[in-house]
């Protein structure tokens, strides 16, 4: 009897353990394009509010090694990444193209441009003459500066270009250069908080071809072909995260700070309030991308001699994984 009772007890325990077993969430790695900031808030909101978990995903958000996310995603070192249209365009048109594809626009319009302290009196590309620009050594920077100056009948040879690397805007313009390229949603907002007035030349206001998507979410196209449902689950959760950030900017900033306490809260909240109107902007829904934006910028890059081949926009982006 004792032996039979033990067998029954063990059987009941096994049934109980089996009933408690749940399917493990699918592990996903997201590679950022830079240090965490308010461009990424929707990702952190999705994580902190349980949207990823609701989709059966266990998501880890990591910072990239030097060089950005494109190479890592192409090599299968992450399922999804944060990149920008320029990087994807280079990747798709290279002699040996990288198999990456943009699947969502984080911000609908290009909020970047050239910024300078007001006392430098730089109000248009014409005023770049005789000034010193601080950049990060990209051929695209040179092409953009040259194109804008030529459009304003300015002499590009009169502009001095200095490589300041990752130096922040405030340090750069204080001691080294007259103007730099910034994202208004971060450095522009920070300048307002610091009470340091600046002149800002937004790229899309000067040349419509420069209204490109930056940043975007990317994936390896082979991964997308093999795991389309995972991609849809991921973007469902991320969409909810960015919608939350649009509707609750201050609370969303606090969610970003949970994993990134080194970020200044005042700046995060102010930046979040600015971006709340920019994430989706005039698009029908968050994340949606238009072919003409990809085609226009791709043609502009090709015309500037920046690309080896012309861009096929259909190979560079897709909206098919966004929530319907």
From TrEMBL:
InterPro entries: NMT1/THI5, SsuA/THI5. SUPFAM superfamilies: Periplasmic binding protein-like II (SSF53850). PANTHER family: 4-AMINO-5-HYDROXYMETHYL-2-METHYLPYRIMIDINE PHOSPHATE SYNTHASE THI11-RELATED, THIAMINE BIOSYNTHESIS PROTEIN HI_0357-RELATED. Residues 37-252 form the SsuA/THI5-like domain. It comes from the Bacteria. It comes from Acetobacterium malicum. This is ABC transporter substrate-binding protein.
């Amino acid at each position: 009897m004792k032996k039979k009772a033990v067998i029954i007890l063990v059987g009941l325990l096994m049934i109980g353990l089996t009933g408690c077993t749940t399917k493990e969430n699918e592990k996903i790695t997201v590679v950022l394009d830079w240090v965490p900031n308010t461009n990424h808030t929707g990702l952190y909101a999705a994580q902190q509010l349980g949207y990823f978990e609701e989709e059966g995903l266990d998501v880890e958000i990591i910072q990239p090694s030097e060089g950005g996310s494109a190479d890592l995603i192409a090599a299968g070192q992450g399922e999804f990444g944060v990149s920008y249209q320029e990087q994807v365009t280079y990747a798709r048109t290279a002699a040996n193209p990288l198999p990456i594809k943009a699947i969502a626009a984080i911000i609908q319009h290009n909020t970047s441009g050239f910024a300078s302290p007001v006392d430098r009196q730089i109000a248009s590309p014409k005023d770049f003459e005789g000034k010193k620009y601080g950049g990060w050594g990209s051929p695209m920077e040179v092409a953009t500066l040259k194109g804008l100056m030529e459009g304003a009948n300015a002499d590009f040879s009169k502009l001095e270009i200095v490589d300041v690397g990752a130096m922040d805007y405030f340090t750069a313009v204080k001691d080294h250069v007259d103007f730099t390229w910034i994202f208004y949603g971060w450095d522009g907002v920070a300048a307002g908080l610091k009470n340091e007035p600046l002149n800002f030349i937004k790229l899309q206001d000067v040349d419509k071809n420069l209204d490109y998507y930056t940043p975007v979410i990317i994936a390896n196209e082979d991964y997308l072909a093999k795991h389309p449902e995972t991609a849809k689950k991921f973007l469902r959760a991320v969409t909810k995260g960015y919608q939350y950030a649009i509707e609750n900017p201050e609370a969303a900033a606090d969610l970003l700070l949970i994993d990134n306490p080194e970020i200044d809260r005042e700046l995060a909240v102010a930046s979040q309030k600015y971006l709340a109107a920019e994430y989706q902007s005039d698009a029908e829904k968050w994340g949606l991308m238009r072919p003409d934006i990809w085609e226009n910028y791709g043609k502009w890059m090709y015309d500037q001699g920046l690309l080896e081949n012309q861009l096929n926009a259909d190979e560079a982006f897709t909206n098919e994984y966004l929530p319907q």
